[in-house]
Amino acid sequence: MPQGKIKRLVSDRGFGFIEGDRGDDLFFHHSEVQGATIEELREGQLVEYEVGRGQKGPCAQSVRVAVQTS
C-alpha cells in the first residue's frame, strides 16, 4: 500500500492533498479517511492510501494514518 505525507489540509472544507511516494500530489476527500476524522489529521503526517480515480484524475482513497515502526 502506498504511503505519503499530508501536504495540505483544508479541514474546514473537508479535503486535502497527499504528497505521494512518487512525488505526485493526490487529492483526498474527508469521506475517504478511515480510523480518524479529518480534524485529527495534521500536515506532514504519514498516511497510507489506495490510488483511485476521481472526477479530475487520480485521487487517494481509503486514507488512514500509517503505523510507524521503529
CATH topology description: OB fold (Dihydrolipoamide Acetyltransferase, E2P)
What is the CATH homology-level superfamily? Nucleic acid-binding proteins
Q: Could you say how many structural domains there are in total?
A: 1
Mean pLDDT: 92
Shape: globular
Q: How helical, in percent, are the residues?
A: under 10%
Unreliable sequence segments: none
Structural class: mainly beta
Strand sequence of the main sheet, in spatial order? 3-2-1-4-5
Instruction: Name the CATH class.
Output: Mainly Beta
What is the number of E strands? Answer: 5
Distance between the termini: 19 Å
Q: In this structure, how is the largest beta sheet organized?
A: 5 strands, antiparallel
| CATH architectural type | Beta Barrel
List the helices and strands and how they pair.
Elements: E1 3-10, E2 15-19, E3 25-29, E4 46-54, E5 57-65
Antiparallel strand pairs: 1-2, 1-4, 2-3, 4-5
Structure notes:
- The chain has 70 residues and is mainly beta.
- It has one domain (3-65): Beta Barrel (OB fold (Dihydrolipoamide Acetyltransferase, E2P)), CATH 2.40.50.
- It is 0% helix and 51% strand.
- It has strands at 3-10, 15-19, 25-29, 46-54, 57-65.
- It has a five-stranded antiparallel beta sheet with strand order 3-2-1-4-5, with no helix packed on it.
- InterPro entries: Cold_shock_CspA, CSD, CSD_CS, CSP_DNA-bd, NA-bd_OB-fold.
- Keywords: Cytoplasm.
- One of its GO terms (molecular function) is nucleic acid binding.
- It is found in: Cytoplasm.
